[in-house]
Amino acid sequence: MINMAEFYMKKALIEAQKAESEDEVPVGAIIVHNEKIIANAHNMCIRLCDPTAHAEMQVITAACNYLDSRYLEKCTIYTTLEPCIMCAGALFWSKIDALVYGCNDKKQGGVVVANKIIHPKTKIKKGVLEHECSHILTEFFKKKRNLQ
Q1: Strand-by-strand arrangement of the 98-103 sheet
Q2: H/E stretch holding 143
Q3: How many Å apart are CA 138 and CA 74, to the nearest integer?
Q4: Which neighbouring-strand residues pair with 31?
Q5: Residues with Cβ < 8 Å from 12, sequence gap 6 or more?
Q6: What pTM, to 2 d.p., does this model score?
Q7: Residues 16, 20: Cα–Cα separation, whole Å
Q8: Tens-place pLDDT, residues 73-88
């Protein structure tokens, strides 16, 4: 039987690979509504010259536009990295139904540190394809350090 959380996280990892190919921090996210991917995005901070252009922010905007709603109550976001405080706040305001993420962000993560930022009704699942999600980030930053 297919593990749907892993299936969707693999789609988010494809987005992270796109970010990596554009020399962006490799984080990807998708939003699912009624078992259909309605939005996908990756980090675009460098490309857009915008520190708020995180994968989660981009995918929230795309999903809201798709649904023509500012709320994502019956949606699940899959993101390869624990959302930062900014993204967690945006998820709170979107009233997203569920958050699934791959690996923890020990430095900038906003979910574990500030549970109050995530809407109390939002279900949270962490550690889905944790190794794969962590690996792409670790390798990206190793390459960055070796180039400098």
Answers
A1: 36-42, 28-33, 75-81, 98-103, 123-126
A2: helix 130-147
A3: 33
A4: 39, 77
A5: 28, 29, 30, 40, 78, 79, 80, 102
A6: 0.93
A7: 6
A8: 999 999 999 999 899 9
